[in-house]
Design brief:
Elements (H helix, E strand, L loop, with lengths): L12 H13 L16 H7 L11 E12 L2 E12 L3 E5 L6 H7 L10 E9 L2 E2 L7 H7 E4 L10 H11 L5 H14 L3 H4 L12 H13 L5 E5 L7 H14 L4 E5 L3 H7 L2 E6 L2 E7 H4 L6 H7 L5
Parallel strand pairs: 3-8, 3-9, 6-7, 7-8
Antiparallel strand pairs: 1-2, 1-4, 4-5, 9-10
């Protein structure tokens, strides 16, 4: 997969490109200009080199078919169908209220907790429709983990935060729990920072560390898919970079779906990108194409800053 390189690869080139595109909407330059390529770092380009070239190239980890969702009388998702390739990162972008987070929560039935929510359609985790009768939602959420926008560690020790899920699954032996805790913290790139303070309250960690702790807590249940709802939006740039690097590493073992308002982040980190607008999945495809040559004008208008 190749990504066009901007002619001036400066740190703030993407913002300048977006401003230029926005100016076109005001008539200062031709209104129908080609979508500019977002600046993608050398690391991201190297990471993307072995990414799947198409949604059909890798087996599906999950697939939504004709998904409709209503909150009371309001329809939040409209006939959404999407295939999520195993071992990849899919970014969901779009303006606020477009349905991307609602769709994300459909993937592990978090919307079941919302009163008045009605869902039609199917979502498959491998061969199983997760909305079929008799599905064990607790086991589903072990297979499809969730990391929320704001870090939400439990008010207990670092060790007990990670061991919480395994204990619910019946694992009681201290040695086995210790092994899971270490493996999970290593997977979240946090072990070296906290290995001597596992009895310390998780609430005493920094914001970035707390978010990686929450990722480690999700990893402790050995999920197949990890859902991330704007996991870096409340973090500083350095912590954000660590989360992005972590996602690239986790991609080797997990399927990741991330909601983000940061299009540069989506371009840097994801294999595939889906654009939501007014409850519809307008377009989904390889991120390199979505950000340089989108197939729908609405996608182009959004990524070039003409609305949203």
């Amino acid at each position: 997969m190749t990504t066009p390189t901007p002619s001036k690869p400066q740190p703030d080139a993407p913002q300048a490109q977006l401003s230029s595109a926005a100016a076109s909407a005001n008539g200062r330059v031709p209104a129908r200009a080609a979508a500019p390529a977002l600046d993608v770092s050398a690391t991201a380009r190297a990471y993307a080199a072995d990414a799947p070239l198409s949604l059909d190239e890798a087996p599906a980890a999950m697939e939504a078919r004709n998904l409709n969702l209503h909150y009371g009388t309001k329809q939040a998702l409209k006939n959404v169908s999407a295939r999520l390739s195993r071992g990849s990162i899919t970014a969901l972008i779009g303006p606020s209220g477009c349905g991307k987070s609602t769709f994300l929560r459909c993937l592990n039935r978090m919307n079941d907790l919302i009163e008045g929510c009605k869902i039609e359609g199917e979502v498959f985790l491998e061969e199983q429709n997760i909305y079929a009768r008799g599905v064990d939602v607790v086991k589903l959420r072990q297979r499809v983990g969730m990391v929320f926008q704001k870090p939400n560690p439990f008010p207990m020790s670092i060790f007990d935060n990670i061991a919480y899920g395994p204990r619910l699954r019946g694992i009681k032996k201290r040695e086995q729990l210790a092994e899971i805790v270490e493996h999970s913290l290593q997977g979240a790139a946090l072990w070296n920072e906290v290995k001597d303070d596992l009895k310390k309250s998780a609430l005493a960690l920094s914001g970035g560390q707390q978010q990686r702790l929450c990722i480690a807590r999700a990893l402790a249940t050995r999920p197949e898919v990890i859902l991330m709802d704007e996991p870096a939006s409340a973090l500083d740039p350095i912590s954000t970079l660590k989360i992005e690097e972590l996602m690239r590493e986790l991609r080797q073992e997990y399927t990741i779906v991330i909601v983000t308002h940061n299009m540069q982040q989506a371009a840097r980190c994801s294999d595939f990108t889906g654009f939501f607008l007014l409850g519809e999945l307008v377009e989904v495809g390889a991120s390199s194409k979505i950000f340089t040559d989108p197939g729908d004008k609405r996608t182009e208008d959004y990524i070039t800053g003409r609305f949203g």
